[in-house]
Amino acid sequence: MLVLGIETATAQVGCAVGGHEGVLAEFHSARGRRHVETLAPAIEFVCRQARVDLSEISAVAVDIGPGLFSGLRVGVATAKAMAQALRIPTVGVSSLDLLAFPMRYSSRLIAAVVDARRGEVFYAFYRQVPGGAQRLSPYQLGTADELASELLARGEECLLVGDGAVRYQDVLREVARFDASDVVKAYPSAASLVELAHPRAIREEFIPATDLKPLYLRRSDAEISWDRREVV
To answer: Peptide bond preceding 66: is omega within 30 degrees of 0, i.e. cis?
Structure first.
């Protein structure tokens, strides 16, 4: 079973193809946030590099967020369109789960943190378990100061990962240890998406394409602006 992974929840655009033998090809670009223009050629590129035809893909996996509104819409819409065109199922995986997955070998508490803009972050806590990282908390939205306070309250050494941790490192470095210079860990990985989605696809833990929705955690700027206009 081959899985195509689509990752567009943050400033990075990524895609990958893989199966039981692992990830066959992957692509990532974090320049210019040109999600619409980049994604389709990137999918063609990874399929060509993996020597895989689209007709051989058995499932489409997509990062459902939380993350940037525009990026999430592009990724989810593309995944739905491809799944319907190819008549294959979809798998949705959270961006925070994807950030925590490569850190699964750490014995420390793992905090995955995505920059939510407007002075806020999306975050969740994870712990190492055999074969992966188990989520310990709900997906949350808060300020960097609120995250720092929660880390202090937990009172244990923590490994932070994600572009939110990088952006607010001055606030968070006093309460947790992380490597802000490692940009590879700043964004969710399409390769991790394929690795996480493949066993779910084997177990047929699918989401119908019609039910696939982004995990926003808050309303868009347009909705907030509209409410303000109605109040005025």
So the answer is: yes
> How are beta strands 120-129 and 109-117 bridged, if at all?
antiparallel
CB 18 within 8 A of CB 2: yes
Residue 32 CA, chain-centre distance (Å), reads 18
Q: Supply the pLDDT for residue 224.
A: 43
From residue 220, alpha-carbon distances to 26, 76, 157 in Å are 30, 16, 34
pLDDT band at 32 (very low <50, low <70, confident <90, very high): low
112 and 44, same structural domain? no
Asked whether residue 72 falls in the same domain as residue 175, the answer is no
Q: Range of 201's domain? A: 2-94+188-228
How many other C-beta atoms can be found within 10 angstroms of the C-beta atom of residue 94?
A: 23
pTM of the model: 0.90
Domains in the chain, number = 2
